[in-house]
Predict the 3D structure of the following.
Amino acid sequence: MAQSAVQEITVPIDINFGETDSALGDDNETETTSLASSITNYRFENGRRYHAYKEGEYWGPNDEKQNDQLDICHHTFLLLFDGKLFQAPIGSDPQRVLDVGTGTGIWALDFADQFPTATVIGTDLSPTQPSWVPPNCKFEIDDAASEWTYADNSFDFIHVRGLYGCLRDWPAFYGQVFQHLKPGGWYEQVEYSVHWRADDGSIPEGHVFQRWSDIFVESGEKMGKTFRILDLQKQYVIDAGFENVVEKKYKMPVGPWSSDPKLKEIGRWHLLECFEGIEGWAMALLTRVMGWSINEVHVFLAEVRKGLKSSKVHAYTSVSVVYGQKPGPK
């Protein structure tokens, strides 16, 4: 049974906010490979570095600048979720946990620290995770879109954050999640929108933020890897057979324009994330998929940065958290 936790969210605006407040594995015979030198033969393109394993499957860079954005994003989500790494009611003693698309591995590391008796596995196309990790945490290079090599019914909790634009066949992915969870296990997915919106009309028709959003949606559809998973994930999870499905929605300000102290702090960090991330988010999509020249990309990004610096725009990013439980024995 699906439950609803969705309600209308209003972000209060700080009327005193002005321009002066602006802020900126082990088995080498399987598809899951260990962190070997063969996968660090990275692709360099337009000044950015991209993954080598399954080259081209993911559109974002894996260089230090983009990894900084991922870690800033992690901190921002912790602020938004009041310090919680997850919201699903997984209990106090999870034994096996999988973090799909782990990125820098920061979520998996924090989870392993919080639950020292759990075994935590983080998977990604890039080996950008630290080499010194807790004994209960390990990282593997793997493609979430390929057939998983883990045993069926083997995980207590599977976690995903930010897989938008990454998969061609979402129902197949959710099928694999369901297959590999233990009966009674939980799945949680956190996604945010590529749309920057404002509730007060401060993003007028034709604004660069609208064009940014439209371009991302179009590029995702051209690749066959939608960026609209935020709007689709709840129903996909239900259709996959999960029970007790809950969706929680949030608004994450872009900049410190809110009068609410918590949202103002979130806005500062999310704005910093946007400045750190926009070139990496845009470069491969606009040049490889949309056919832009690198000069066209830089001109467009300059306009986006100008929009981000404006205190007159009260933009926010929509966030959706969906979690559900694999049915247990009746």
Observations:
- Residues 24-35 have pLDDT under 50 and may be disordered.
- The first strand starts at residue 2 and ends at 4.
- The radius of gyration is 20 Å.
- DSSP finds seven helices and ten strands in the chain.
